[in-house]
Amino acid sequence: MMLLIKLFLAHLIGDFVFQTKKSIKQKERLKLKSPVLYIHIAIHFVLLSLILWDISLWPIILTITISHFIIDVLKLKFQKKKTKRLWFFLDQLFHIIMIFVAYFLFTDNSLEVSTIFTETNVLLLTCVLFLTQPVSIIMMTIFSKWNIEKLTTGNESLKDAGRYIGMLERLLVFIFIISDHWEAVGFLITAKSVFRFGDLKESKHRKLTEYILIGTLISFGIAILTGLLFLYLT
Predict the structure, then answer these.
(1) How large is the C-alpha radius of gyration of the chain?
(2) Cys bridge to 170: 48, 142, 184, 223, which one at CB 3.0-4.6 A?
(3) How far is Cα 180 from Cα 168, in angstroms, rounded to an integer?
(4) What distance in Å separates the CA atoms of residue 69 and residue 60, rounded to the nearest whole number?
(5) pTM for the complete prediction?
(6) How would you class 128 by CB atoms within 10 Å of its CB: exposed for 0-12, middle for 13-18, buried for 19 or more?
(7) For 18, which DSSP code?
């Protein structure tokens, strides 16, 4: 496990510490002609070598270094202005996957599917997925009887901000409950009340206040019930 942690450490330092906005822009502009690209790959190679400090692990070092170069080249080739955010996450995902591949390929550790897809893990994954998009759709259906756009005229929020906030708060509540930290749920409710209802009090918008209050209680209630169900079944 320590070896895997070291591999992630080298990746974090190479991709997020030793890269600047200026160097990233130069790579995007010059692509394969950019010397920064090759310096970046060399930095990853050096970091892996120094952090691992074991010549017997050279297959892991070479695999990660070469795959890092290929992934970065693919990103530079296919990334467009409108897809930069998507390619950022895809780039990191592919790097992480290759770290795992190199780790399990060149060490004695084996990854068994049966140890991952246990009954508890599958239930946990199901609960987490349920608390994201499915619950958001359920709540949208519940609140479809009210015209939220009319209530928020002149006080619009960021696009989809409410949906993402709801997902995050439900996941946090779920985590707090299954880890037996009920006091954190109360703190989260209080924090949200301070930020949301303070502004609503100033605007004296009673209908919007009621709308948000109902949504908060339903969102927290579903997360709490899901957490209790998870604890009961496990």
Answers:
(1) 23
(2) 223
(3) 18
(4) 14
(5) 0.73
(6) middle
(7) S
AA letter at 119: E
CB 184 within 8 A of CB 176: yes
pLDDT digits (tens, 9 = 90+) for 23-73: 999 998 999 999 999 999 999 999 999 999 999 999 999 999 999 999 999
Q: How does 85-99 read in b/e, with b if 16+ C-beta sit within 10 Å?
A: eeeeebbeebbeebb
Quote the strand ranges of the chain, DSSP E: none
For 107, 172, 189, 190, 199, the CA distances from 220, given in Å and listed in that order, are: 44, 10, 9, 12, 21
Q: Which of 177, 186, 188, 184 is nearest to 234 (CA)?
A: 177
pLDDT digits (tens, 9 = 90+) for 9-19: 999 999 999 98
Closest-CA residue to 165 (of 176, 156, 175, 157): 157
